[in-house]
Amino acid sequence: MKGDPTFWILARATGLAAYALLTASVLAGLVVKSRPFGKAMKPATAVDLHRTLALLALGAVGGHVAALLADHAVEIGVLDVLVPGIAPYRPLATGLGVAAAELMVLVYASFSLRRRIGQKNWRRLHWTTYGLFALAAAHGVLTGSDSGEPWALGLYLGSIGAVAAATAWRALVPPAKPRPRPRPQPAATTEGA
Amino acid sequence: MYRIVIDGSLCSGFGTCADLAPEQFEVGPDGIAKARVGESDDPNVLEAAAQCPMGAIAVFDLASGEQAA
Question: Which one of A121, A145, B11, B65 counts the least CB within 10 Å of its CB?
Fold first, then answer.
């Protein structure tokens, strides 16, 4: 490592933030159907949260990429952050991150294109979120300068465990059904006779 | 009285509408929600439209002609 470490530190921080936000977004997406919080979180609210967190995660990924391009601790160029596996710094592990980021953009953009690509294709594409989450986790563990720290290991293990638990809940526990409100009865027209 | 319109190309079959207004909505065998009736005075259709995770339901107020949810 050489020179000013500011952008390197920023790259690490934004990378960890992106991973934490991605995890939170995946968890919010998993509770849309399973509704583990019952009335406390409506499905539409969960979707809003899911999409907002995904957008924030993409913003953090953008910051991560910008910091890596600005940094000179390791030489990473524009092509390196677009084509998986060609970066001079830990090419395989960096490539996993590039692939994860590109899939994130694709999955996020697909929500607005549901009518055009069809609901079935959109759902198939959405399933790749599990793959991109795994790629992001592997990228973080293998390239992260902080991966050996107990708190970083806790973050990775905790996030993977949380996503696995939320997936199991969704698959195994029937969702709590919201109750319809009783329909208002028409007012009586005769009273007291 | 409300007119219910479901965009089948957006519905993902979560079934929230059928839970909230079971007399007005059902999820078909193809996993897509369908309106049992085209029009209803049940205010739960408003909640069903508002809570559809995919934003696939529109409800129009027949009296004003405007979209109510």
Answer: B65
Neighbouring CB atoms inside 10 A of A189's CB total 5
B32-45: pLDDT as tens digits: 999 998 899 999 99
CB contact under 8 A, A115 and B44: no
Q: Are B25 and B34 in contact (CB under 8 A)?
A: yes
Chain B partners within 8 Å of A30 (Cβ): none
B53 and A44 within 8 Å at the Cβ level: the answer is: yes
pTM confidence score: 0.87
d(CA B58, CA B4): 6
**Cα nearest neighbour of B7 on chain A:** A115
Instruction: Give dist(CA A93, CA B65) in Å, integer.
Output: 57
User: Residues of B with CB below 8 A from A33's CB?
Assistant: 14
